[in-house]
Design a protein that fits this description.
The protein is α/β, with parallel strands linked by helices. The protein folds into two domains: about 170 residues, Ribosomal protein L4/L1 (Ribosomal Protein L4, Chain: A, 3-Layer(aba) Sandwich); about 40 residues, no CATH class. The protein is about 25% helix and about 15% strand. It contains six helices and six strands. A six-stranded mixed beta sheet has the order 2-1-3-6-4-5. Strand 4, helix 5 and strand 5 form a beta-alpha-beta unit. Helix 2 packs across helix 3.
Length: about 220
């Protein structure tokens, strides 16, 4: 595996050098098939599965035959609540179901490494030194991202999302903050660049603590 490096920045956005990344996490050949399967499973798990329609046996009415079988020149009907009637039941409509798919942990780890390696090959992975801000301020976060040149959708991987740094980033509309243990392939693919801290860059990719669920998926209009 070739050496993989990423630019290292200070908390004020100034570059201080380069940092070597783990080649087993950021330098592998992306497995697109596994990546596609894991992301599909994550998006499927995000579906609520609460859509429901009533069948002809569940709608109200229709207990009496609307007219006699023969002699009127009209089509025969046994109920006014069959699917072809207005107000009738729905044929083959959706019912509540679970869309989640079983995804082995090895596949999730490989998919995450594939996504990170793809971003690293595009030079879209950046590392910032320890963020030691005394108080949460969005202005500090904007200045840091601006100094790093992180434009567009940005994924920030922090050790604690509810800490000072996490509170500083969370009000930015195109920034998503996540902890290393909950980093998913979809998060990486969603972003244009991924920003790690010097503490989180070494802990990601070695284990997959997350389970694919709707809690890990954030729709773009809610970001």
């Amino acid at each position: 595996m070739a050496d993989v490096k990423a630019p290292l920045f200070k908390a004020n956005g100034k570059k201080s050098g380069d940092i070597e990344l783990d080649a087993e996490v950021f330098g592998i050949e992306p497995n697109l098939d596994v990546l596609h399967q894991v992301v599909t499973a994550q998006l499927a798990a995000a579906r609520r599965g609460t859509a429901s329609t009533k069948t002809r046996s569940e709608v109200r009415g229709g207990g009496r035959k609307p007219w006699r079988q023969k002699g009127l020149g009209r089509a025969r009907h046994g109920s006014i609540r069959s699917p072809q009637w207005v107000g009738g039941g729905v044929a083959h409509g959706p019912k509540p179901r679970d869309y989640s798919q079983r995804t082995p942990k090895k596949m999730k780890r490989l998919a995450l490494r594939s996504a990170l390696s793809a971003r690293a090959s595009e030079e879209a992975v950046m590392v910032v030194d320890d963020i030691d801000w005394s108080a949460p301020k969005t202005k500090q976060a904007v200045g840091l991202l601006g100094g790093m040149g992180a434009d567009g959708k940005t994924l920030v991987v922090l050790g604690q999302v509810d800490g000072t740094a996490g509170k500083s980033f969370r009000n930015l509309p195109e920034v998503r903050v996540v902890e290393p243990g909950h980093l998913t392939p979809y998060d990486v693919l969603w972003s244009d660049q991924v920003v790690f801290t010097s503490h989180t860059v070494g802990s990601v990719g070695h284990s997959s603590a997350y389970e694919v669920s709707g809690d890990d998926f954030v729709k773009d209009d809610e970001a």
